[in-house]
Amino acid sequence: MKIENIIAELKKNEWIDLTHSFGELTPRWPGFNKLSKKIILDFDKYPVRTHLYTFPGQYGTHIDAPAHASKSGRTLEKIDLKECVLSLCVIDCSQKVLENPDYALKVEDIDNYENNYGKIPEGSFVAMRSDWYKNWPDQEKFLNVDINGEPHYPGWDIKAVEFLIKERKILGIGHETFDTDPPQKKEQYPFKAEVCILKNDIYQIELMANLDKIPARGSVIFCIFPKQEGGTGFPVRCFAICPK
Hints:
Layout: H1 3-11, E1 14-17, E2 36-41, E3 50-54, E4 62-64, E5 85-92, H2 94-99, E6 104-105, H3 107-117, E7 125-129, H4 139-143, E8 155-156, H5 158-166, E9 172-174, H6 192-199, E10 203-206, E11 219-224, E12 233-235, E13 237-242
Parallel strand pairs: 5-7, 6-8, 7-9, 9-10
Antiparallel strand pairs: 1-13, 2-3, 4-10, 4-12, 5-11, 11-13
Helix pairs in contact: 5-6
């Protein structure tokens, strides 16, 4: 098939942006400062404008590379292009999160998903749908702090993560919140599920958007990010191509 025909066929499908735009007011993990930018070339002296940006690599919708949790882990430039285009499986936990903001996706959620949609294919990207992205761009709603200063938002149970890694051999994983580990799941402190993912040489995408617009099975995810040398994380442009 000619490349033009392949492109035309792809464009007949639904294209869904899974990425939040980001700027100075972007919700962020509380240990990070907000983005700052300043103009270093402008139209008063040049025919172009250029900004200097300062922000943590893990900012906005972003990738965590294996090196984020391991000195010997792969950095961004070592992630193969073919790992950036994967079959997408979306596990919907939105109703459970609505009832319990501290909900952790469990192995039984994976079992229920597979009973309805079939076995998760090896080499897939698995995303947890919580609908938490709808709190964007409100930092307070994203953290959901109680009167004692404790944050409440959903994530993954480490046993579910281990199952996907060992039994389904996934290549990517993602969610809509700041962290893999729900902050109220104290037995996973600090970042045990996240570290498990990354130390198994799998990348993750955090702060995803629009997973409620994606079918549970049958889409393809594209995770595009700069080829930054030695990078442990960076903002991404993720999108899915879904059959109409």
